[in-house]
Specification:
213 residues, mainly alpha
């Protein structure tokens, strides 16, 4: 897996994902209403504001947050299991390359590059899902405070901000797990990476478009 064509396939696979994410980031800055992740972040803010105005909605809000918390926990479990498996499989080759390198810079192979990218994606998914759990946990406490109380009003801005952050972190955790697919395909066969990457980009493009009013 050291040929020039293999390197081109690996770099193309990773570059397509990076370019798409960069384009989505720039578009979200220029036109937030056209991107689902920013529109959904606003939805969560307005949801928390809405339930904070309705007396008796505390139980309903906590139940909704509990479902989100369970979903984020499942993502975290999936990411940590995938990360443990990847580290177990990649450890021998990484140790042979970096741990036993005596002279000069260790040779970076296409397979090792893909393994590092895979571990980075899984680790990022784990961190994002853990942060989502953290924020959802805090928001659930704020949501359980009786509506109309002075304490609820004092923590209202924090609850709005945390509801938004929790959703954003959950979105990133799920996105990083989806981005694992092209990397795995490229590990199985280098030339399977670019078409799978193109398919994932097309899929994400459909999900990322927001056409709501």
């Amino acid at each position: 897996m050291n040929s020039l064509s293999t390197w081109l396939a690996v770099l193309t696979t990773v570059a397509m994902l990076l370019i798409y994410e960069l384009a989505q980031f720039l578009l979200s800055r220029r036109n937030p209403a056209a991107i689902s992740r920013t529109a959904h972040a606003l939805l969560r803010e307005q949801w928390f504001e809405s339930v904070s105005r309705q007396p008796g909605s505390e139980i309903l809000a906590v139940q909704a947050l509990r479902n989100s918390l369970m979903s984020a926990t499942m993502l975290a479990s999936t990411a940590v299991l995938g990360l443990m498996g990847t580290v177990t499989l990649a450890a021998p080759s990484l140790n042979a390359t970096f741990g036993k390198a005596v002279v000069g810079i260790p040779q970076l192979t296409p397979r090792m590059t893909l393994e590092l990218v895979l571990m980075a994606l899984l680790f990022a998914s784990l961190v994002a899902s853990a942060m989502a759990i953290r924020y959802y946990n805090h928001v659930s406490f704020i949501s359980s405070i009786p509506v109309g109380s002075a304490e609820r009003q004092r923590w209202l801005p924090t609850g709005i901000a945390y509801a938004r952050r929790a959703g954003v972190m959950y979105s990133w955790a799920l996105r990083h797990l989806i981005l694992v697919s092209p990397v795995l395909a490229c590990l199985l066969h280098p030339f399977a990476g670019p078409p799978v990457s193109a398919a994932v980009v097309a899929l994400l493009y459909g999900f990322d478009r927001f056409e709501g009013k």
